[in-house]
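User: Hello! I'm new to structural biology and keep hearing that structure can be predicted from sequence alone. Could you demonstrate with Alpha/beta hydrolase fold? Please show me the input and the output so I can see what each looks like.

Assistant: Of course. The first part below is the input, the amino acid sequence of Alpha/beta hydrolase fold. The second part is the output, the predicted structure written as tokens.
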Amino acid sequence: MENQVKRQQSQETEDIVESTLREIVSDELQKMQPSLVVNQRNIVSRNNDVIWEFDGLHLENSTETASEELMLEMQRLLYEDLREELIRRELEFFEKEDEYLAQAVLENMNLNDNQLNLNFLKSRLGEVHMDHLNRGCKATPSFCMQAMFNLNALFIQCEVCDTFEIVI
């Protein structure tokens, strides 16, 4: 009973391996013969039967040459697949690198924008302070942030000359 179970498991494993091998070889044959794609099931199965019904090498030179050509073509397709995989991975790497560089540029631009905003704020504060002094008031104004009319703004305020203006 135990031997029978082992033989059955062995036969199942052998069937799985044979089925997998047939699928791999069939896929490779389809790659070598793109014209078979039109009617895959009928044409490919007929050509695959020739491979699976192979009864060994004959001494004929043409069969040996055909086998060598088949193996070389399969090798070429394997290397082509490997090359495509390498290219795909390189493209993924370059896309990630581009994304990283784009993020770095964006961050740098934000820093430049902040610098620009700081320069504008500095200039605007200088302008309103000079305007205040040009009105003849020598008192030091105060600057404050206030929310008025649902708007947050920076104001200049002087209690001596009753100045109250929006800076930004």
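User: So the tokens describe the shape?

Assistant: Right, they're a compact way of writing down the 3D structure. Reading them back into a model, for example: Residues 35-47 have pLDDT under 50 and may be disordered.
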